[in-house]
Design brief:
The complex is a heterotrimer of chains A (290), B (328) and C (392). With 290 residues, chain A is mainly alpha-helical. In chain A, 71% of the residues lie in helices and 2% in strands. Chain A is built from 11 helices and 2 strands, in the order ααααββααααααα. Chain A has a two-stranded antiparallel sheet with strand order 1-2. Chain B has one domain: ABC transporter involved in vitamin B12 uptake, BtuC (Orthogonal Bundle). The chains are: A mainly alpha (290), B mainly alpha (328), C alpha/beta (392). Chains in contact: A-B, A-C, B-C. Chains A and B meet through α4, α9 and α11 of A and α6, α10, α12 and α14 of B.
Chain lengths: 290, 328, 392
């Protein structure tokens, strides 16, 4: 029972990690840029929802949709306005640009909110479901279903539609795609937007569970990395599996070994995976032989 | 490259050498004009000069993204603090072990490079390594003092008690000058050129029978040594070593110093440390705005001046250009 | 190299001269005919910025004092300095206040680790410092010449927490859940020390890091140990998460929290009374936050910072502010630091109106506030308690 309950809570946490990891993975696959500021986009999503719900008085679903749309635009703007313009430079520039943008977002959130730590009003308030002795909370159910639907949508689009095939083509070869008339720059912008929007959904789902503060994003960035690494860097399905596994692993480590280790499970996973099996569970080899 | 004759280059080199020695000599008079507050900021700047010089070895010269710099900084500070607080060592004796511990950490953080791990993967490994170290400071209470950290008192440098900011300043200035000169020499040696060659083209470098993986680990190790020593100075300056000082916010500051100063430029490291230690002090009246300004500043530099302040200065005064570094 | 050899002698002369001169602070610095400068260090930015609500409240209090006519014909001029809960910035801030702004005294600091880092700087300068918010008792004791604690220290609160836990009949098994930081330790440490003195060892100790959004593993482990009481040294968000998980998994033991949380806001966050019905906190105030005795102080805050929300931190430094104003008044028009410190040391059983405990400072004991209450919900209303099940 202990074992299963831990796993269940771990899956609910893991679903959010999976979403964040997948959104980072989308950006990475499409543009080969790892967004080191992604956690702050997650935070931004949660903050925009809060703004709309509490200050503008909009209902939660409308606010959530508006926040995701806004973050899509923000993501696309970051790519087109900033990342695209330093393409000629070294790859360190991308990482620093992402960190800088994240820092700016955090600063902006802090300038607006100052000293307050914000409680989000309860959104879904119905009693937990009992499966035998297992407790499944409303929050967990909402997270499961939201992430499930999103994943189906995403993978359906990516692998089953012609737009999705175009995306895959660009990921395979940018030059080839450009030669057959695909607008690669626009594609990059859109994919950044998609990544940011998916990250924002993670933030929207987390917002009711915890208090909002501008530093919210840092944890998600690390969990996202760990999930991506575990699943195989750049593998979309792997990111999802990695996220879920990480969530469950954290709970088991906390339940059976020590709760002090929960916070570093993600780091241990990263180091172990890259030291023992750098390609992760589902990815291709990463080592560059020179 | 830009139409310089050898004579010009020699003249510039001589001038550059003079600038190198004149700067610390001129700095000697700073305490005559500073109050303990401004002197503290100057001392902090010296610590960050070392941090940036060390970090730049990896970030600018080697061209590898790395997130372990605060870990190296922290391990240096902790090593010095543990030796001074627990074992009662004098400050001067704790400096070399701090550097050695930093070097060992740099080695460990990058050892996966020997297995072919590069770029983002290496960056993420170093990030995880740094956070693991910070976790061990928190939970290794017997040695590290846990979240309360360690208190460093009565720093002794060959009989000089570093009680005042002025005394610390002169000792720090000496150490920083020696190490910056050493790094400068190193970067013009075979090792330094190999490191830069790996950044410019690892495949081509490897084809010259240079074991690039080993040089990457070496660069991290050297960087760890310099940053570790910076950590020991930091421990003495602040008088306290706590895990909180070596988190991700500190890391972003280190990144910014390298970037604003100039990737791969020794002179730039000094400029970057100077600019970003002093700047927050001018923002004291507007506490909420500094983060936004800081993020914006980085973005502007990346877009408009990606080679940092040093390239800007080198354009104006060619004598200041680093000799081992060339615009690509 | 040759020119540098010639420079050697003048250089040595400069160094020797600079080392020989030392800065000293005048005993009456920061006082003019019309004003007294007080430096207030607060973590206005960074991850600990919600602590700074204490110093904002203090600033409002001093502004209010000025509007009542000031002290002995002088207005209080506060210089607010941010230190972002960071030791380096903290040292810079306090050196700036002492040596550049030349304030008369310091009244600030929320983060204990930073307070410990700046302690040597303040001691060296000899400038009076009333600690506004940081709870680590080691800042003010053993007593020094010029450092005073204006809030109950962690030991006082931890002791109150431990004592209250022991008043529940038949308590034998106590579980502990806490953050791994110095803030949590400042509460849970003394509480566990007290329990140890009653020969009670925690049956289980678990960690919940700040920023985690789930406490399943922690809650289930505590539940397995089946404790009679849980001590939770957790910050606001994590307290809410833990209480929700405790209810979810049927962990029914009462929970003793810290003064970092308050009953009203915890209830707001958790959403239903059932979940917080068994939650208790140390209570530093003379009344509930929305009670009639505190209304005056809430109004002061709202007058100068209208958009500031009121939490458990907001009014905590005002008590020290009242004691400072009192000592300044007694020092008279002819003010000096030495005189002021002597007057602070004559503070006996001073009722601040806002704190539950009275302030007493002597030259040998600077831990000013030695009493705190405990509050819990009684029939749905936050109530100050004397012991388990007993109203004050």
């Amino acid at each position: 029972m202990f074992f299963l309950q831990l796993a269940l809570s771990g899956l609910a946490q893991g679903a959010i990690y999976a979403l964040v990891a997948l959104s980072m993975c989308v950006v990475y696959r499409a543009t080969t840029v790892v967004n080191f500021g992604h956690g702050d986009l997650v935070m931004a999503g949660a903050f925009v929802v809060y703004l709309l719900v509490v200050l503008a008085g909009l209902p939660f679903p409308a606010s959530a949709i508006a926040a995701v749309a806004l973050l899509f635009i923000l993501g696309a703007l970051i790519e087109i306005g900033l990342i695209e313009r330093i393409k000629a430079g070294p790859h360190i520039g991308f990482a620093l640009m992402c960190i800088a943008v994240g820092y700016l977002l955090r600063g902006a959130a802090r300038a607006v909110w100052g000293r307050e730590v914000l409680p989000m009003p309860r959104v879904f308030d119905f009693p937990p479901v009992m499966l035998g002795e297992l407790v499944v909370t409303a929050d967990a159910l909402v997270i499961f279903s939201a992430v499930g639907v999103l994943l189906m949508l995403f993978f359906g689009l990516f692998y089953r539609t012609s737009a999705g095939r175009i995306m895959q083509a660009v990921c395979q070869s940018e030059r080839g795609a450009a030669l057959v008339g695909i607008n690669v720059r626009a594609f990059h912008g859109v994919m950044w937007g998609v990544g940011a929007a998916m990250g924002a959904i993670g933030g929207v789902l987390v917002a009711p569970l915890t208090l909002l503060h501008p530093g919210l994003g840092a944890g998600f960035l690390i969990k996202g990395f760990a999930a991506m690494t575990l699943g195989g860097f750049g593998s979309l399905g792997g990111a999802v599996a990695g996220g879920l596994l990480l969530g469950v692993a954290e709970q088991w480590v906390g339940g059976y070994v020590s709760t002090k280790l929960i916070d570093i499970t993600a780091y241990l996973v990263i180091i172990l995976v890259l030291a023992l099996r750098p390609s992760g569970l589902f990815g291709q080899a990463v080592a560059e032989r020179v | 490259m830009n139409g310089q004759t050898p004579q010009h280059a020699l003249a510039h080199r001589a001038l550059g050498t003079r600038v190198f020695y004149a700067a610390p000599l001129l700095a000697l008079v700073i305490p005559l004009f500073a109050n303990p507050y401004t002197q503290f900021i100057v001392n902090l700047t010296l610590v960050y000069v070392l941090v940036t010089v060390g970090f730049n070895l990896v970030l600018g010269n080697l061209g590898q993204l790395a997130f372990a710099n605060t870990a190296l900084f922290g391990i240096g500070a902790y090593t010095a603090a543990i030796l001074m607080a627990h074992a009662g060592w004098p400050f001067w004796a704790a400096i070399p072990p701090a550097g050695a511990a930093g070097a060992a950490a740099g080695f460990l953080a990058s050892v996966t490079a020997l297995r072919g791990i590069r770029n983002y993967y290496l960056a993420i490994v170093t990030l995880a390594f740094g956070e693991l170290l910070r976790w061990s400071y928190i939970h290794g209470e017997a040695l590290s003092g846990g979240t309360d950290g360690l208190t460093v008192r009565h720093a002794d440098f060959f009989g000089i008690a570093l009680e005042s900011e002025t005394a610390r300043f002169y000792v720090f200035l000496l150490i920083v000058t020696v190490i910056v000169k050493a790094v400068s020499n190193l970067m013009r040696s075979k090792i330094g050129r190999a490191i830069v060659a790996i950044r410019d083209n690892e495949l081509a470098t490897a084809s010259l029978a240079i074991p690039t993986g080993r040089y990457i680990v070496l660069a991290f190790t050297l960087s760890g040594f310099v940053v570790g020593i910076a950590g020991s100075l930091f421990a003495v300056l602040i008088g306290q070593v706590i895990p909180e000082s070596f988190g991700l916010i500190e890391l972003i500051l280190h990144f910014a110093m390298v970037l604003v100063g100039g990737l791969g430029s020794l002179f730039g490291s000094v400029l970057g440390a100077l600019a970003l230690t002093a700047l927050p002090e001018f923002f004291r009246p507007f506490p909420g705005l500094y983060e936004m300004f800081f993020g914006g500043l980085l973005i502007v530099f990346l877009l408009i001046q990606p080679r940092g302040l040093s390239a800007l200065c080198a354009k104006r005064w060619p004598a200041l250009r680093d000799r081992y570094y060339r615009e690509r | 190299m040759k020119p540098f050899v010639h420079l050697l002698r003048p250089c040595i002369a400069i160094v020797a001269y600079a080392l020989a001169t030392t800065a000293s602070a005048a005993d009456t610095a920061g006082i003019t005919d019309t004003a007294i400068k007080i430096g207030v260090m607060a973590p206005l930015t960074g991850s600990g910025s919600s602590y700074s609500k204490a110093e904002i409240g203090l600033d409002a209090y001093y502004k209010w004092v000025n509007d009542q006519g000031g002290v002995n014909g002088r207005k209080i001029e506060t210089v607010l300095e941010d230190y972002a809960c960071d030791s380096t910035k903290g040292i810079a801030a306090v050196k700036k206040l002492i040596h550049q702004d030349k304030v008369f005294m310091l009244h600030g600091n929320s983060c204990s680790a930073v307070a410990m880092a700046i302690k040597p700087v303040v001691l060296e300068a000899g400038i009076p410092w009333v600690i506004a918010h940081a709870a680590n008792g080691a800042i003010s004791s053993p007593a020094t010449k010029n450092i005073f604690h204006g809030v109950p220290v962690g030991k006082t609160m931890g002791l109150a927490m431990g004592r209250f836990v022991m008043t529940k009949p038949g308590v034998a098994k106590v579980a502990v859940i806490q953050h791994t930081d110095d803030w949590a330790k400042s509460y849970c440490g003394p509480a566990m020390e007290f329990l140890a003195s009653q020969s009670i060892k925690p049956v289980v100790e678990v960690a919940l890091e700040r920023g985690q959004t789930d406490a399943t593993a922690q809650t289930l482990r505590i539940k397995q140990a089946n404790p009679d009481f849980v001590i939770a040294c957790l910050y606001e968000a994590e307290t809410a998460i833990f209480l929700k998980d405790a209810k979810k998994f049927g962990l029914n033991a009462p929970v003793m929290g810290t003064a970092g949380t308050d009953l009203e806001n915890t209830l707001k966050r958790v959403g239903d009374l059932d979940t917080v019905a068994n939650y208790f906190v140390p209570h530093m105030y003379a009344d509930n936050l929305d009670g009639p005795r505190l209304k005056r102080f809430v109004d002061i805050l709202k007058k100068y910072y209208p958009s500031e929300s009121v939490t458990a931190f907001s009014l905590i430094s005002m008590g020290g502010g009242a004691a400072v104003v009192e000592a300044l008044k007694r020092s008279g028009r002819d003010l000096s630091r030495e005189k002021f410190i002597a007057e602070l040391d004559k503070t006996r059983d001073f009722d601040t109106g806002v704190l539950a405990g009275r302030i007493t400072w002597t030259a040998a004991d600077r831990d000013g506030v030695k009493e705190v209450g405990i509050a819990g919900f009684v029939s749905g209303k936050p109530t100050v308690l004397k012991a388990w099940g007993q109203r004050l």
